[in-house]
Amino acid sequence: MSEQIDEIREEEINEEQKLKTRQELIDAIREEVVTKDEIDDDENDELNLDSKDKKLFVDKSDPDIETLFNRYKKGTLILQPKFQRKYVMQKSLANKLIESLLLDVPLPMFYFAEEEGGKVSVIDGQQRLTSIFAFIDDRWTNEKNGNISSFKLSGLKVLSDLNGKSFKDLNEENQNKILYTSVRVVTIKKESNPDLKFEIFERLNTGSTPLNEDEIRNTVYRGSFIDMLAELEEDKIFNELVNKPNFKNRMLYRGMILRFFAFYEKTYLKYKPSMKQFCNKFLEEKRNINEKEVAKFKKVFKDTIELVKECFGKNAFRRIVKDESSNDCNIVSNTINMSLFDIQMCGFTKYSKNQIYPHLEEINEAMMNLMLSDPKFIDSIQLKTSNSDMVEYRFKTWIETLDKIVREKQIDRLFSYSVKKELYEKDPTCKICNQHINNIESAHVDHIVPYSKGGKTVIENAQLTHRWCNLHKSDKIN
User: Fold this and answer.
1) What span, in angstroms and rounded, lies between the C-alpha atoms of 57 and 254?
2) 3-state class (DSSP) for residue 49
């Protein structure tokens, strides 16, 4: 009797552990998220939709895995179309996903988009389906080097006896359990209104790796313009300046370039919130541009990004902020500020390289000074940045600043970077507050005898100061 009681207790413990592990698997699948680096932009930017002629057509179905796999093999289920993000599910999570199927753990819903010719593209659930199909196909692709190997289960906790087995090694019962598992699929019909389709994709994609707006946009508005964005996101200089691989994996690079083109073509004067809709409407309008237009946009982008690199270098699209504990300034290097991206890119489209190159240092200085000395400009790049007034102020302020620098006859009143570097390396002490200057970005070179009083722009008449101190010094200090 005692042995029977122990066996019953052991069964109860095993079942409790099984249920616990099932919940862990569900949680793990739902939490499969690609880490997103910081981006400084509005998070509550909503679409402005009216009720007129906004129609959405949706089909719901419950196909089994085998049916979806067969459609994938026939090419009518587009699992990884070029608009989708790359496959990023970790091998350990893919193993848990397979185990969850064998344990009858319900999977999150899948979302498809209907295409022409009876095909459908996977909108949400691509990561899960790729993993399941890879196991059935016995082909695991290494995300780092692209090598293909056999997909053998590993790390299973509940069904540990299946570790080391591929799909073909499973018994018929387990194979059928995977193949005949039904999943809920929501298919957005091609007749649906694009604006509403975009909104619904945002609301509905609640699967393991929710789509961001750029992934949704690349689904709704596919065409030659999207193809061009996909090509431009590989631009070497752009990748060097943004330097956020995760952005690229989640199509944020494409979203940034789209936003640049929208402001370039429409100008800030025609901007109306929301930012999402501003970009969406532009993309819908330009969705199927011809080769001549593609060539024009490519040239504008490449010419502009080269100027941005020459002028701002590694600090492009990054804010400079006052260090509250000192008079130093720090570059917020880990965050892309989209408001700065807008104006730094669009500002240069008005000029040729020959107009900009003689003024690179002066333009760079002017940008940093605005970020430290103009309170409204500072607000416009960090608070309610998609607000019409904020957009207008930052664009107008920067365009007028840039125009003044470029259009005026060059005057020898700005010390060169080489002079700043020489003074900084010799003695990095601010001649106004007498404190140490922690980095060269915080440094500014000022005239000892003011330029307005005849002082020459030569190193003998130069003194090193904190940028902050020089911008906010008293009129009595020269």
Assistant:
1) 28
2) coil
Cα–Cα distance, 369 to 59 (Å, whole number): 55
> How far, in Å, CA of 257 to CA of 327, rounded?
35
Mean pLDDT, range 196-205, rounded to an integer:
64
Bridge partners, 112 (sequence order)? 122, 187
Distance, CA of 117 to CA of 138 (rounded, Å) = 29
Mark out the alpha helices in 138-286 (DSSP H runs): 172-179, 194-204, 213-220, 224-232, 236-242, 245-249, 252-266, 275-286
Q: Does the CA dihedral 414-419-421-425 come out positive or negative?
A: negative
pTM attached to this predicted model = 0.66
Please give the C-alpha separations between residue 255 and each of 2, 229, 249, 276, 344, in angstroms, as whole numbers: 67, 8, 12, 10, 16
CA dihedral 187, 190, 195, 198 (to 10 degrees): 30
Indicate the helix (H) or strand (E) that contains 368.
helix 360-373
Distance of CA 456 to the CA centre of its chain: 46
Note the pLDDT tens digit of each residue in 35-82: 334 577 765 555 555 554 567 788 999 999 999 999 999 999 988 655
- 321, containing H or E segment: strand 320-322
Domain range annotation of the chain: 17-220, 224-407, 417-471
Q: Tell which residue, 463, 436, 435, has the closest CA to residue 448.
A: 463
Residue with tokens 């060539």: 295
User: How many Å apart are CA 56 and CA 54, to the nearest integer?
Assistant: 7
Structure tokens at 245: 């691989």
Q: By the 8 A CB rule, do 221 and 284 touch?
A: yes
Averaged pLDDT, 2-16: 43
Q: What is the DSSP string of 92-120?
A: HHHHHHHHHHHTTPPPPPEEEEE-GGG-E
3-state helix, strand, coil in the chain (%, to 5): 55, 10, 35
Q: Which residue has the tokens 């200089």?
A: 237
Tell me the range of 270-274, 283-287, 393-397 where mean pLDDT is highest.
Answer: 393-397
CA distance 243 to 245: 6
Q: Is 68 within 8 Å of 129 (Cβ atoms)?
A: yes
> How many Å apart are CA 57 and CA 62, to the nearest integer?
17
Per-residue pLDDT band for 476 (boundaries 50, 70, 90) equals: very low
